[in-house]
């Protein structure tokens, strides 16, 4: 998630949609146990962990809190503890692999702890990091919230479309319906920007997406029972494309988390019946994922291989991938170079047109805009990149903080 999430991924989306205010664990609970100090929100990478020791907490990931992780690390002989992805606990005695504070401050540490919804436990590729010292003085009583830490510069006045140039038809909107009316208001802010031509909302129906956009429905997870609503929706609306399961290759709470064999059977039941009339996408997987898995020890490329092996009679019209990475990776490659390499690798591996249905680099507004200015023209010029959608159309991302217009990043995405 990551979401790479969102990533935040869908979990992060729901957080934005509800407007929930979540405090970082640096106030009353930390003050009561003054031996732990909050160091900040650190960027992490599955290829080189900042804290190398993943520890299983006694009560399980669903009970995760910062206190629980800190206690677990201390008992294991470590003096630094970090929480990530809402339910992961990582430990060490020093920050390694070139780890440092996230360039966007606390913005990426936005996922509520699975065991305490009023505090954060990191985020996608982000760690809330704490250090233990018996002599540490009481921590600051300041409480940082995700809503207060967001650094995106945005205005409360809707930005009007100024570009009349027509794009390639590839650019789309991954949008939230988490607004007071529960509809596609955020997506419809892109109306009039001719480079943006389609949208999806991680489900169906479109909840009022403007008719100037093509709506692409998604079957997010394995349905319960026969799910006649999905079958009848596709039969009656006859879309040109349909999207399949969302991040079945991952195991965090915002993913669909499906074994390849179960996903293959699900596709044969719910997707393959439409193969003669619509183009069906492979499941949406986090292609830059390494080492994280759903029910087995394999990465997302291998998950996809196993899935295809369990769906040999299925017909696929395109691949669907996600990509999340720091805007300023702690290595010699730029974020744009990483991205281009991942997208190219997906095409070379799967030999299908590629839809990048979620992607984002984690960083400041200026960093994200620079990233978009490099990768959008590149994708538009690649024949094998069929469509893409930046994460995502909701407040403090592509939409401004009060939901009335596009943010600076949103304008860049719509016009570059």
TrEMBL record:
Biased composition regions of type Low complexity, renumbered to the chain: 132-156
Residues in the signal sequence: 1-18
One Pfam match: Glyco_hydro_cc
Keyword vocabulary terms for this entry: Hydrolase, Signal
Region of interest (Disordered), ranges: 132-177
GO cellular component: fungal-type cell wall
GO terms of biological process kind: fungal-type cell wall polysaccharide metabolic process
Keyword rRNA-binding appears in the UniProt entry: no
Domain of life: Eukaryota
InterPro entries: ASL1, Asl1_glyco_hydro_catalytic, GH, WSC_carb-bd
PANTHER family reported in the protein's UniProt record: ALKALI-SENSITIVE LINKAGE PROTEIN 1 (PTHR34154), ASL1-LIKE GLYCOSYL HYDROLASE CATALYTIC DOMAIN-CONTAINING PROTEIN (PTHR34154:SF13)
Name of this protein: Glycoside hydrolase family 128 protein
Originating species: Hyaloscypha hepaticicola
Lineage of producing organism: Eukaryota, Fungi, Dikarya, Ascomycota, Pezizomycotina
């Amino acid at each position: 998630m990551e979401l790479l999430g969102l990533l935040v991924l869908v979990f992060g989306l729901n957080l934005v949609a509800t407007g929930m205010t979540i405090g970082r664990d640096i106030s009353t609970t930390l003050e009561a146990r003054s031996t732990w100090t909050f160091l900040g929100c650190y960027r992490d990478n599955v290829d080189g962990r900042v804290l190398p020791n993943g520890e299983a907490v006694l009560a399980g990931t669903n009970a995760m809190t910062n206190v629980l992780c800190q206690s677990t690390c201390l008992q294991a002989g470590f003096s630094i503890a970090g929480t990530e992805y809402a339910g992961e606990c990582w430990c060490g005695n020093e920050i390694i692999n070139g780890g440092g504070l996230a360039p966007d401050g606390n913005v990426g540490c936005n996922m509520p702890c699975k065991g305490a919804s009023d505090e954060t436990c990191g985020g996608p590729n982000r760690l809330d990091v704490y250090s233990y010292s018996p002599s540490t003085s009481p921590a600051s009583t300041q409480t940082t919230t995700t809503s207060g830490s967001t650094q995106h510069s945005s205005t409360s006045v809707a930005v009007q479309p100024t570009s009349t140039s027509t794009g390639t038809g590839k650019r789309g909107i991954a949008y939230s319906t988490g607004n007071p009316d529960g509809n596609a208001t955020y997506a419809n802010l892109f109306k009039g920007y001719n480079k943006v031509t389609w949208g999806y909302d991680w489900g169906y129906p479109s909840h009022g997406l403007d008719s100037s956009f093509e709506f692409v429905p998604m079957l997010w997870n394995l349905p319960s029972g026969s799910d006649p609503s999905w079958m009848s929706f596709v039969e009656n609306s006859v879309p040109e494309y349909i999207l399949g399961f969302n991040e079945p290759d991952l195991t965090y709470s915002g993913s669909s988390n499906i074994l390849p064999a179960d996903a293959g059977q699900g596709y044969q039941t719910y997707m393959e019946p439409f193969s003669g009339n619509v183009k069906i996408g492979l499941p949406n997987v986090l292609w830059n994922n390494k080492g994280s898995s759903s029910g087995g020890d394999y990465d997302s490329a291998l998950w996809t291989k196993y899935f295809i092996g369990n769906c040999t009679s299925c017909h696929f019209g395109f691949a669907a991938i996600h990509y999340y990475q720091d805007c300023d990776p702690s290595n010699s490659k730029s974020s744009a170079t990483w991205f281009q390499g991942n997208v190219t690798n997906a095409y070379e591996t799967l030999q299908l047109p590629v839809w990048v249905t979620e992607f984002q680099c984690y960083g400041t507004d200026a960093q994200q805009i620079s990233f978009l200015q490099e990768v959008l023209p590149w994708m538009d010029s690649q024949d094998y990149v069929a469509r893409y959608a930046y994460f995502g159309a909701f407040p403090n991302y592509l939409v401004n903080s009060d939901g009335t217009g596009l943010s600076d990043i949103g304008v860049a995405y719509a016009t570059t």
